[in-house]
Amino acid sequence: MSGPLDDIVATIAETAPDVRGGLAGRRVYESGANPSGETQLAADVYADELLAERLLGVEGVSAYASEERGSVRHSDGNGDGAYRVAVDPLDGSSNLRSNNAMGTLFAVYDEPLPAPGAAVVASGFVLYGPITTMVVARDGTVTESVVEDDGTRRVVDPDLTLPDEPTVYGFGGRVPQWSNAFAAYVEAVESELKLRYGGAMIADVNQVLTHGGVFGYPGLADRPEGKLRLCFEGHPIAHVVESAGGASSNGDRSLLACTPGGLHDRTPLFVGDERYIERLEAALSG
Ligand code: FDP
């Protein structure tokens, strides 16, 4: 028997081949911008519309929010549904023009949006790489599957955990914009780990989940709040990484301990090996 959380995960998996199939013809920019003022690709809008339509059709889902729309959309029929889904339909979509990896991120909350990180009950992402994979975190367990062309999933790792031995790192933002404290931390990390950075958070975090290590997008001199969004990127990826035995931080505390003031709030974001996140927090607090 399946419940609403199973249906939400299945709906996202079933939508993944359609999103992927629609990428080729949608590498052009739309005339509008998303609520954060960023240019949108036709692919961003297409993925958002597909996911909104389908997720709001799932029994138990009362609201859908995404990086691509200004406000929360409520379901017509399931107004009292317990679950609200926040989605980044195409994270890393600027990678589409250069034909590099990107993904779909989601967090399911049991409180109205924008909600605190503690209200996340399930999370995950689809990664459109050479193959399509899906990682889902629920009840403290992380599962990785391959998504077939018909949207069905074949489990390849029923208990994905962060490797004990950290190997890789990736940090976003222009180096001259980093704080001195963060730059000093990175200098130490560089002498210990190997750089793997591709410019799509979801793909870069999957490197960390696969090889062990740390990913971050810090606050910048001209943008102290960072680039990534708490509801659509911070909470889901923190829930995945913490469920896989790693840690997350906004530079001071777990991202799951953070409550957004607004739906599109941004946050500095760090995830990965617990020891590297502890050192990061110590470096930034010094
Ligand atoms: P994108 O703008 O291509 O959607 O928040 C989105 C994101 O990509 C992340 O996936 C990525 O880590 C980051 O922005 C990269 O941004 P910059 O290249 O602007 O530093």
Walk me through what this model shows.
The protein has about 290 residues and is α+β, with helices and mostly antiparallel strands. The protein has 2 domains: about 5-155, 2-Layer Sandwich (Fructose-1,6-Bisphosphatase, Chain A, domain 1); about 170-285, D-Maltodextrin-Binding Protein, domain 2 (3-Layer(aba) Sandwich). About 30% of the residues lie in helices and about 30% in strands. It has 6 helices and 15 strands. It has helices at about 5-20, 40-55, 180-190, 200-210, 230-245, 275-285, and strands at about 30-35, 40, 60-65, 75, 85-90, 100-110, 120-130, 130-140, 140-145, 155, 170, 195, 215, 245-250, 270. The strands form 3 sheets. Strands 4-3-5-6-7-8-9-10 form an 8-stranded mixed sheet, sandwiched between helices. It has a 5-stranded mixed sheet with strand order 12-11-13-15-14, sandwiched between helices. A two-stranded antiparallel sheet has the order 1-2. A hairpin with a 2-residue loop joins strand 8 and strand 9 (about 140-145). Helix 1 (about 5-20) runs antiparallel to helix 2 and helix 3 packs antiparallel against helix 6 (about 275-285). The longest helix has 18 residues, at about 5-20. The N and C termini lie far apart (about 50 Å). The model has no long low-confidence stretch (mean pLDDT about 95). 2,6-di-O-phosphono-beta-D-fructofuranose (FDP) binds next to loops.
